[in-house]
Amino acid sequence: MKAYKIYIINENIYIDLFSGEHIVQGVARFNSKHSMNGCCGGGCGICRIKILSGDYTTKKMSRKQVTDEEEKEGYALGCRVFPESDMSIEYVGLKNS
Q1: How many CA atoms lie within 13 A of 95 on its CB side?
Q2: How far is CA 57 from CA 21, 23, 26, 77, in A?
Q3: Extended beta strands in the chain, E state
Q4: What is the mean pLDDT of the chain?
Q5: What is the C-alpha radius of gyration for the chain, rounded to an integer number of angstroms?
Q6: What is the pLDDT of residues 56-88, one digit of tens each?
Q7: Domains assigned to the chain
Q8: Whole-structure pTM value
Q9: Run of H or E including 68
């Protein structure tokens, strides 16, 4: 089974993810009380990240939390991002409304 290193740059931590896991699963294994843990359904926005590097796929996420334009700029919800390589991300959290 493949494993990937995810570097959360603004927290200076590395987490390990296995192929098929989304980013929040790895974060929860690293620290179950991390503030990125949320609904894991792509709607609440608590796990909002900015992807700085790496390959990945995404599942459908709330456009209220990540607009099409923001997604093109690298924003996504961690619970909807499935790494396909090592990645560097920034944890952003909820949008300022």
Answers
A1: 14
A2: 11, 11, 16, 11
A3: 3-8, 13-18, 48-53, 56-58, 75-77, 81-83, 87-91
A4: 93
A5: 12
A6: 999 999 999 999 999 999 999 999 999 999 999
A7: 3-91 (3.10.20.30)
A8: 0.92
A9: helix 68-72
